[in-house]
Amino acid sequence: MLSKKFKILVTGGAGFIGSHQVDALIEAGHKVIIVDNLSSGQKENLNPKAKFYKVDLRSEELSSIFHNEKPDYVFHFAAQISVNQSLEDPVYDADVNIIGGLNLLENCVDSDVKKVIFASTGGALYGEAEEVPTSENYPSEPMSPYGIAKLTIENYLRFYNQQFGLKYCVMRYANVYGPRQNPKGEAGVISIFITRMLSHQLPVIHGDGHQTRDYIFVGDVVRANMLAFQSEENDTYNVGTGRQTTVNELFDLIKDELEFKQEATHKDVFHGQQVSCLSYEKINKALGWKPENSIEDGIEKTVQWFKNK
Fold first, then answer.
1. Helix, strand counts (H, E) of the chain
2. Of these residues, 126, 146, 177, 237, which one is catalytic?
3. DSSP code per residue over 158-177
4. Does 210 fall in a domain?
5. Within a domain: 200
6. 290 touches 280 (CB < 8 A)
7. pTM
8. Is 160 annotated in the active site?
9. Which range marks the domain in which residue 79 is found?
10. What pLDDT digit, counting tens, does each position of 102-123 carry?
11. How many domains does the chain have?
């Protein structure tokens, strides 16, 4: 375990997961530098104790930040985050998520960074898996450019480790939700439902609502990242709950929490992945991590945050 205090660079540190990670690192006594172009991150998410650079990952400015700050560790959250947008514009997705990621890794090697903790995806990586909950050994067959880009950076991390000795941990998240989530994109369905109900609008469910996801609370994700950061291993871990929840169940949980009286509107046919659920057995054995927030508890905390906001 690491007891020393380090200088840590967090890409996407104004975003949903990244900002919670920054808070945890600062609370643990580390010095944090945030790099975020604010394309999906929010200024109000920035921790005032962190040093902030409004810079795009693909920018040449990144190398001067590394040169001046000399970070010990890097947490990489910055990304084009929408699966749908990646389907509409695969070239842009690859430019941000692959070319931007490579620019980051090149700078990590040049600056002798000790380790990279990479925010990957479990939800978009395994496709329609026959093994549910799905383990890390299951073949990765992403069905979207977003998933393909995440897998590509995972492969580059292995290359940079073999070639240059750059240590890494790949964290494959299930569908993360919680306070500060931007109500955009499919992964943000919880925040979308909450914001619609709070503004007395009917949530829309695509298809019959029987499609399932594994919803993981952001606080549990941050704890997993902290354990990976403190571990000496180069490895890949799923971060999920092993529990499937349908969109209909999700709607009912939020509806009860908000005492919302109406039913959701069902429209169109749902064309995406039908089932997504991750096994957390490996990270439990290796790092002692397990989810602490049930979907019921997590939704209660998330609803409370959106109400206060």
1. 11, 13
2. 146
3. HHHHHHH--EEEEEEE-EEE
4. no
5. no
6. yes
7. 0.96
8. no
9. 7-177+216-240
10. 999 999 999 999 999 999 999 8
11. 1
